[in-house]
Automatic annotation (TrEMBL):
Location of the protein in the cell: Cell outer membrane
UniProt-listed PANTHER family: CATECHOLATE SIDEROPHORE RECEPTOR FIU, FERRICHROME IRON RECEPTOR-RELATED
Transmembrane segments: none
Assigned protein family: Belongs to the TonB-dependent receptor family.
Residue ranges occupied by any TonB-dependent receptor plug domain in the UniProt entry: 122-235
Sorted UniProt keywords: Cell outer membrane, Ion transport, Iron, Iron transport, Membrane, Receptor, Signal, TonB box, Transmembrane, Transmembrane beta strand, Transport
Membrane topology summary: Multi-pass membrane protein
Protein name: TonB-dependent receptor
Organism annotation: Flavivirga spongiicola
PROSITE patterns registered for this protein in UniProt: TONB_DEPENDENT_REC_3 (PS52016)
Length: 938
């Protein structure tokens, strides 16, 4: 018996020892097919929490692994993923892997538009990826400028970094110039940059590009209906750099020239590494000083941002704390005058390449209409542009709970502030037009009017306008005259936008034998406010505008000052909007990825969302006091200040809807797949519905929920030297509310027309392809062919006045949907060998209709970009980039006739036929820009 007990004890001890001491170590290296070490490759052992990444030499090591059979996965952005089964039996092993180029990143894991991370080839969505190399090939003009490299994405970045437009697949109708991201979600690391949008408050205000971005994942339509907050048109997710196993980073110096010798200086930096005990950090940002592509007398952009993340890895996941501090000033260009409807050319001495028509810099204090009795004022300087501040921080948790349960939660708080001090509109206003004088707010500004340069005090013109009310021209009283016998119809435009926001995305996932079920909720809360005040500015109408000090000097009468010493007139009399709102977005979702067979996966999801808008908007009226605010009858510029009456129009509306998206993926083989998807999404109104409309009237109805139906079928294939994706789509947008911005010259009032509800439909084909016919050479080609239609479309014609007796509704059903090209593509060649790299890219934008009446077409244009790079040492590299090499004068946007308060829809075929020689406003693309980048890696 004792012998049996002893043997049993020995057996148990041996088993225990084997269990304890059968620990294994795996080491190895990862290279590309040229033999170069790959840093940052991810190594993961399946059914375990063992993982690692390669260092700068391409080496990795995983220690203390229990003996078992594992599937090891090696992945790296831009390379095909390798999976291999290994057996560990108590011995250390050394492995070596060579990764082949994944030309379209089809075997790269994507996290955007899906509830579970998966290879792009296995997803039933249209996703594109821009890696860090692709990002570095672009001029740092802004977010929208970069996204034009995504197939099927229409972008308009002609105004600069902000005031941009981005949309896909004809889902565009409410993506106006001042709310250009209406249907899509701009995200950083999986959460929206901003929760709300309204006029001149879009997410691009608070987003900047620099070295902290690792890649961009772009989803067009489809599953965005169930994976994003109120953004059925697509998701553009900028993913930050994360864990580095060794300390290192990059410092990049950029110097460039653009336009007529304007400079750009920028410094970027990003560093990261381990902090010990499974703690890691990454931090970086940039600062820039940019004089802009067009001519202004002040820097166009200056400022920067700082971003960071700190990650703690544990046995079952990680905890990440992250943050961003943005403090940046930038501006946006207004349009340029053109003539010749069939072949637009610059007018009035302006230039499509260099003219900006922005007011020069000056310092003024304009009374704040909200607090006139307290003597409050707002400082105004056009050189400030839009000053955007964003302080954001959050926590991201990823945890394996065991038994095939997975928890993820991402929560972010941000406080935002956008202050606009700039000009709006730059229309031609003839000196023979009574508007040129009455817009000052003066009672009867008729007689001798004197214009002086506001900066030098020199008299530029003296005229008699006594005959204009009878239709007679002005009479100059000296030999001097104003340029083009006109002033600019522009406003000193002051805006304050603030928002405190909280967002949270929680998901809980359970893996079954053939199902991967994900459920959770998304929350978004925003406490936001808006104040807008517009004052008229007397400015010369010429390529480099000058401010004008204007007086009425009738003999025998007191001198009446139509403007102050800076040239500002009609203080706060053009615009007044003072609103505030609390927005809550709450949604819950469930999604099932069903493995029907090894080759077929179904992806079915539902999302229920409810959005609440609660707020108020101040009523206003002109401040009434004899002599205006200062009590002086001889200062007419402060006689019409708009101020709150004390009444408020409240709104409190809920929008609830159910969205659906279902997809199927059929894996042909390891390199190819077919997919199809149908989605029914919804778009609730943004706050501009309340803020822009209902001027001094009750907000007695809520906006319409727009309905988006989309269907797509596509193929993805990944061969050794050739990869491509191609997607045929159909999209329909219903219940589109359209209202136009109008100006009534009879009483100098500005208003929006009654909303009309319309429908559009777009059918098209998107494609993305990469071909490498020989080693070191790559050809890329992506684009879209589409047929956009305004299937049911009506426009309200106010006939240029508030009076409704002469109004009418015009039916344009069946016309081509405006601002959607039928053909758009990018074609590029890339070469890289040893230390040398080069590329040339052709971007083609097809013809677009400038309005729904199809009265004016924006011509097609091409832009060529080139670049070359050289690896000077192992750490130091240099790159030269040239954008718009041949100085294309392509037109990106159209604003209608060149008159104050006009809009694009006014340029109907009848109007153009009756006014063949009139001028109109267009937005040309930005001219040639060249820069040199020096990058030091360590």
């Amino acid at each position: 018996m004792n012998k049996i007990i002893i043997r049993f004890m020995l057996t148990i001890t041996s088993m225990f020892c084997n269990s304890v001491f059968s620990q294994n170590n795996i080491s190895g290296e990862v290279k590309d097919r040229h033999g170069n070490a790959l840093e940052g490759a991810n190594i993961i052992l399946s059914s375990s929490n063992y993982q690692s990444t390669t260092n700068t030499e391409g080496f990795f090591k995983i220690e203390n692994i229990t003996s078992n059979n594992y599937k090891i996965t090696i992945s790296h952005l831009g390379y095909k993923t390798i999976e291999q089964t290994i057996e560990l039996k108590g011995k250390d092993i050394t492995l070596s892997f060579v990764l082949e180029d994944d030309l379209l990143s089809l075997q790269t894991i994507v996290v955007t538009g899906t509830f579970d991370s998966r290879m792009q080839l296995e997803s039933s969505t249209s996703v594109s990826i821009l890696n860090s190399k692709s990002i570095q090939q672009n001029y740092p003009q802004g977010t929208a400028s970069l996204l034009q490299n995504i197939p099927g994405t229409f972008t308009d970045a002609s105004a600069g970094e902000v005031y941009t437009k981005v949309y896909t697949r004809g889902i565009s109708a409410s993506a106006e110039d001042d709310t250009g991201w209406y249907y899509v979600s701009l995200q950083e690391d999986g959460l929206p940059v901003s929760l709300v949008q309204h006029s001149y408050y879009s997410p691009d205000l608070f987003h900047r590009l620099d070295l902290t971005t690792q890649k961009v994942e772009a989803l067009r339509g489809g599953s965005s209906s169930i994976t994003a907050l109120n953004a059925p048109g697509g998701i553009y997710n900028f993913i930050s750099k994360g864990i580095r196993n060794e300390f290192g980073g990059d410092i990049q110096l950029t110097n460039g020239f653009q336009g007529e010798g304007n400079s750009l200086h920028k410094i970027d930096a990003n560093i990261g590494g381990p902090l010990g005990n499974n703690w890691f950090f990454n931090a970086g940002g940039h600062y820039r000083h940019d004089d802009g592509a067009r001519n202004t007398d002040f820097p166009f952009s200056k400022g920067g941002q700082f971003k960071f993340n700190v990650i703690k890895k544990n046995a079952n996941g990680y905890l990440k704390f992250y943050g961003k501090v943005l403090n940046d000033k930038t501006n946006r260009y207004t349009g340029v005058a053109a003539v010749n409807w069939n072949n637009p050319t610059p007018a009035f001495g302006q230039d499509f390449g260099s003219t900006s028509l922005l007011m020069p810099s000056f310092n003024a204090n304009i009374p704040d209409g909200r607090n006139l009795t307290q003597g409050a004022s707002n400082s105004f300087d056009p050189s400030q542009g839009v000053h955007a501040k964003d302080l954001a921080f959050g926590f991201d948790i990823y945890q394996d709970l065991g038994n095939n349960w997975l928890l993820k939660n991402n929560i972010k708080f941000s406080t935002k502030d956008a202050n606009w001090q700039t000009s709006i509109s730059n229309a031609f206003v003839s000196l023979n037009n009574p508007l040129a004088y009455f817009i000052s707010g003066a009672g009867f500004p008729i007689g001798q009017v004197v214009f002086k340069d506001a900066q030098s005090g020199i008299e530029l013109a003296r005229l008699n306008n006594a005959g204009i009310l009878a239709g007679q021209p002005i009479e100059y009283l000296t030999s001097n005259a104003l340029p083009n016998d006109a002033i600019m119809g522009t406003s000193a435009w002051y805006k304050e936008n603030k928002a405190d926001e909280l967002m949270n995305q929680f998901t809980l996932q359970k893996k079954l034998e053939n199902h991967n079920i994900t459920t959770g909720f998304a929350l978004g809360f925003s406490d936001t406010s808006l104040f807008t005040q517009g004052s008229f500015a007397f400015v010369t109408y010429e390529p480099n505008p000058r401010l004008l000090q204007v007086t009425l000097e009738n003999p025998g009468d007191p001198v009446i000052q139509l403007s102050d010493s800076n040239g500002i007139s009609n203080y706060g009399g053009l615009f007044f909007v003072n609103s505030r709102a609390k927005v809550s977005q709450i949604s819950t979702f469930i999604n099932d990825r069903w493995k029907v067979s090894d080759a077929i996966h179904l992806d079915l999801g539902l999302r229920y969302e409810t959005i609440k808008h609660k707020g108020s908007k101040d009523r206003f009226a002109p401040f009434t006091q004899d002599g205006g605010l200062d009590g002086n009858n001889n200062t007419a510029y402060d006689n019409g200040i708009l101020a709150p009456t004390g009444e408020k129009d409240n709104f409190n509306y809920n929008y609830s809807y159910l969205s659906f998206s279902g997809g199927i993926n059929y894996k042909i083989d390891d390199d190819g797949a077919l997919f199809a998807r149908f989605s029914q999404g919804n778009k609730a109104p943004e706050l501009n519905y309340y803020f822009n409309n209902f001027s001094n009237v009750p907000i007695n109805k809520k906006g319409e929920i727009q309905k988006i139906n989309q269907a797509e079928i596509g193929v993805k294939y990944n061969l050794k030297n050739f990869s491509f994706t191609s997607t045929l789509f159909w999209s329909q947008l219903k219940d589109i509310g359209i209202a136009n911005f109008e100006f009534d010259s009879s009483d100098n009032s500005i208003f929006y027309t009654p909303i009309q509800f319309n429908t559009s439909r777009t059918i098209g084909l998107e494609w993305e392809s990469v071909y490498s016919p020989v080693q070191n050479f790559i050809l890329r080609f992506n684009g879209i062919i589409q047929n956009p239609k305004a299937t049911e479309w009506k426009v309200y014609d106010a006939a240029g006045s508030v009076d409704t007796s002469d109004d009418s509704i015009i039916d344009y059903s069946g016309n081509i949907l405006p601002f959607n090209p039928k053909l758009m593509f990018n074609l590029s060649n890339e070469y890289q060998k040893d230390k040398i790299s080069a590329f040339i890219k052709w971007q083609f934008m097809g013809k677009r209709d400038g309005n729904v009446s199809n009265g004016f077409k924006l011509p097609a244009y091409s832009i060529f970009n080139v670049g070359a790079g050289y690896q000077i040492t192992k750490q130091l590299s240099a790159d030269l980039l040239v954008t718009n090499l041949f100085n294309s004068e392509g037109l990106a946007n159209f604003f209608g006739a060149n008159s104050f308060g006009a809009n694009a829809n006014g340029a109907t075929p009848d109007f153009i036929a009756a006014n063949p020689d009139t001028s109109f406003v267009v937005f040309p693309v930005l001219r040639r820009r060249a820069l040199l980048k020096l990058n030091y890696s360590f």
